[in-house]
Amino acid sequence: MNKYFNIKILSILFSAVVLTSCMSRQKYERPKEAINENLFRTDLLPKDSISMATVSWKEIFTDPVLQKHIEKALANNLDVRVALQNINAADSYLKQSKAAYLPTLSAGPNYTFQTQSLNTQSGQLLNQRNYGNQFDITANVGWEADIWGKLKAQQKAQLASYLGTVSAHQAIKSDLVAAVASAYYQLLTFDDQKKIINETIALRNKNLETTKALKEAGTLTEVAVQQSQALVFNAESLLINIDVQIALLENTMSLLMAEPSHAIERSTISAQKMPVSLALGYPANLLENRPDVKAAEYNLMNAFEMTNVAKAQFYPSLRLTGSAGIASADIDQLFSASSLFANVVAGLAQPILNKRQIKTQYEISLANKEIAYLNFRRSVLTAGKEVSDALKIYESQDGFINLKKKERDAYQNSVGYSQELVNYGMANYLEVINATVNQLTAELNISNAEYSKLDAGVELYRALGGGWR
Question: pTM of the prediction?
């Protein structure tokens, strides 16, 4: 009997091996059209395999005060801490998928008490109740052979999911470093603009006194005095607005560091320098350096493997189940050799009719795979656009700043010349006012342009995938 049983088991396993050779799990391959070498839309810089994204953020942002803020944000930021918990959860699922190859085993004692109804046919024949007791300690084992690679595909899917959470954590860190640096540079810019406005207020107050003196001398009218006073009020209102913007930005940086709102320590805008050489690397580097692009590909890999899982559901599954233990109607005889029992069942189960559930799941998995592919393509194109945008802004700011400085110098000269002409009664004071307003606007435009260059450098670093190392 045992020999016959062993032969049956071997024949079932042999059949499973033969069937497996007819169908193997498909392996994931990255889509060939994932990366276009013209993704960055630039021929101005040499294409190099080295990318600035591989450089630590500490080498990009060298201001010690800024470094301290970034370190604090990376340690305390709530989004980063949530991402770490997502990694922990995904790691548990990955461990569970690896354990799927192992058999299930359960064991425990049981007690059964049974008596039949007197109103049943057997009860009426006996015309008396019978009572039965059974004590047993039973162990149950089950194991499924992965003949179609379903369990392997599930493990691969969970691995991709886990790696996706790791990349998502890296993406949050990259965005966080860029956000803190950008906000810090904006604060320094506001400090610089506040200095410009304070200097402007002092200058306009001086011009107001000059205008009052010229009115007393009969050179100017009260209209010029009121216009000069309005310029002072205008500059003072700008100062209030700058103070509000500084407070709001300090609150934002405090939130990034997961702290109550407070004043932010900082240095000066003149002390900030971005790397002179910008190494973009090949566009394909985005797949290695940019975490959100990696996360999108891991999602695609997960969806791909889940199609393998869904496809394997169409084929028969081989399961081995068994139970063994001791059972007795008398607890005193429970641990005797005569109480031992065991049974083993091996079988192939082929789905035939299941209300279209398997086919539906397979069709859904194909749709999910296509969605994941489209999201991956979008992430690559978005990354390329962000690199192109940041590079264009960064490269254009030097020329823009030089022109704005020339514009400011021209307005400064215009203010001096027009004031001198007014003193001799040869020009309208409105010309002085226009030149003064334009001079302040030019000064603020230069400050904004210098910030835009720094911010574009930060964005280029993030867009290439830097900041998480």
Answer: 0.80
